[in-house]
Amino acid sequence: MLEISNLTHTYGSGPSAHHALGGIDLKVAEGELVCIVGPSGCGKSTLLRSIAGLLRPSGGEVLLNGVRIEQTPDNLAVVFQDYSRSLFPWMSVADNVALPLRRKGMDKKQRREAAVEALSEVGLEKAAGKFPWQLSGGMQQRVSIARALAYRPALMLMDEPFGSVDAQTREDLEDLTLRVRSMHNMTILLITHDIDESVYVGDRVVVLSKSPAGIVGDLRVDLPGPRDQITTREHPDFVHLRGEVGRLVRGVPGPPDSAAGGAAPRSAPETATPGADTTGPDTDVPTPDADTTGPGTDDTDTTTSDADGTDTTTSDADTPASGADTTGPDGEAPEPGAGDPEPETDTIEPGADTPKPGADKDRGVPGDTGPAPRPERIHMSDPQAPIWDAIGGISRFAALATMAELGCADELRDGPLSVDELALRCGANPSSLARVFRQLAAMGVVTTTTPGVYELTEAGAALRSDVPGSLRPAVRMITEDGFWYGMGKVPQTVRTGTSAFVERFGPLYGYLKGRPEAGALFDDYMTARAQPFATAVASRYDFSGVGTVVDVAGGKGHILASVLKSNPEVGGVLFDQEQVVGGAKEFFAEAGLEDRCKFVAGDFFASVPAGGDVYLLGSVLHNWSDDDCVRILGNVREAVADDGRVLLIEAVVPDEDVPHISKDVDMRMLALFGEGMERSGSQYAELLDKAGFRLNRQLELPGGFSIVEALPL
Ligand SMILES: Nc1ncnc2c1ncn2[C@@H]1O[C@H](COP(=O)(O)OP(=O)(O)OP(=O)(O)O)[C@@H](O)[C@H]1O
Ligand SMILES: C[S@@+](CC[C@H](N)C(=O)[O-])C[C@H]1O[C@@H](n2cnc3c(N)ncnc32)[C@H](O)[C@@H]1O
Q1: Domains in the chain and their CATH numbers?
Q2: Angle between helices 481-488 and 661-672 in degrees, nearest 10
Q3: Which stretches are tagged as biased composition: Low complexity (predicted)?
Q4: In testing the pocket of ligand 2, which one of 508, 526, 605 has its CB within 8 Å of the most ligand atoms?
Q5: How confident is the model over 160-186, as pLDDT tens digits?
Q6: Ligand 1: centre distance to CA 378 (Å)
């Protein structure tokens, strides 16, 4: 069905050439679910894009049902990680699913029926009439899967499909994938970073080496079916396999009888058989029509239409609009506007996790060199699980705070160190530090190379002080004396209705002004926190025709800086308090943007700089009471021209009781500001209305934040 022969790809040429694929041979049989894992950056997406016909490989060939793939074939579907970019926000869920079916020649009624059927297969029949932005992240990804299912592709490619949802949703989506695969006997190639996931969902796990990627392991997963999240993951064969895959990914030698122990890579079996979960009927005959299809060639821009119907061009060719053709808006679909309910998004959580202690030892494998740490899944049937998990969170945070405070990540920058050496360098007690590192390894922040020797994982590297958007200040800010006091006193705050922090220390911004070290930490914390969405503001919002963007209370101006970088014709004004503006100037100078920005110090309760076309307020209103917000917005209304725009960037609270970052941030607002709070879309609409604006639309950003766009009344 899928045959890949000697596939090679090199990006660029000459001294800067990068050999991404080093000769891949792989066969996938009909009805198989094959997972591809490998170190970050090894070439997994390059492989997938070559199969999808989105990239022309330098050598070799890919055959799908005997036909050489030269461009995106019609009988192929792709589900990408970034669901928010793969669904059209102005189309209902059913219309999104039905859209690609037009190319199958189905009439409107047939398309509708197929969409409703696919939606019911993913448990979303009730959401058919909603817009994607009214659904949680997990639900949106189910819509993407339904769209792929609806036209019954011969092959479904999934690129980190569950990478942007929380741990619980991820498990649900894994099970959904197994279910629909079994219903339709689908052939699926799934790329994942998650070793446990690959073993849990795969019939086979193919492991790629560092680039240039080659296959270093091809392991058949024979686990008793049907698989389920608890018993399958506890099964000794599962534990063993995940250890093997983990070692192969890391290139760590295993015991002689393991796939990782043998020097020779395992080759793909000649005839693969679908896994135990597959019970469904034969697949429908693939018909010409495909999901997805973004750009036909690599490195091209993907043009999609924005919610207002204007075309916007996003430059990330890696995530084209999946599951749909990239034609313009569907005339049948209504356009979301003011007064529409706000979207919900799942919290994007870095799953905390603990490998099963001793699990590998049971198989005679040195336990510490096991697979990638994954959060221990607290037994979901345990009614106390959410409480124990929250209590455990404090212990895990204590370990993280110690690492950040002592600067351990900086010491580990150049490679692994023993705990004794680290303790010496960081000024710590070795046996105490060893206990902290045992916990950090379980959390996936560091990993053990040999017993007692640790190196940073990708997550841990984010705590280095020298990386852009370092998370070290974010962790340190939480344990800053006043912050810590405020969080501990939330019960008192709730009892009295007045922030215990404010009662003791006065308003937060005065507190920070009087403590320059804490103030600098706070500004860096804000910078790091906005990192996931700062670039998205610049790439997803259309700034064409805009002369000046005023970043009101912009902090160091990281969002403005990224807008300026992506829009060379735009000029900026960074407005904040006197003591903050200095740090912003330095930040802009380092980015080489100081000539394109004016820096204005002031108080937004008095006035804000006039003359801007767009006024940006990032995480500003959430610090203040409704009355204060109306005063700030009133001053913005004074400053903005009648044809100007205001963009609020906030974590908008969803109506449903789903986990959401806004609810975490809101607890901090409660603790530190008392009257500051996270708000729902309708609450923002009300505030804006009082200040002379109308909420025009809401665009989602990664990480649970949104742009709320308002226009002067
Ligand atoms: N368009 C491009 N131009 C130049 N180099 C590229 C391009 N796309 C990818 N690369 C490089 O090729 C290598 C493989 O990238 P690819 O995205 O395929 O890896 P990956 O395994 O999917 O990564 P990750 O696990 O981090 O998602 C990386 O070193 C990457 O920097
Ligand atoms: C939560 S931070 C947000 C920073 C940035 N916009 C972001 O998105 O990360 C709020 C900002 O409001 C600024 N601020 C607080 N009171 C202010 C005032 N009265 N006038 C102007 N700025 C103020 C603070 O200095 C701080 O930079």
Answers
A1: 2-250 (3.40.50.300), 378-467 (1.10.10.10), 507-712 (3.40.50.150)
A2: 100
A3: 257-340
A4: 526
A5: 888 877 888 888 889 988 988 888 888
A6: 34
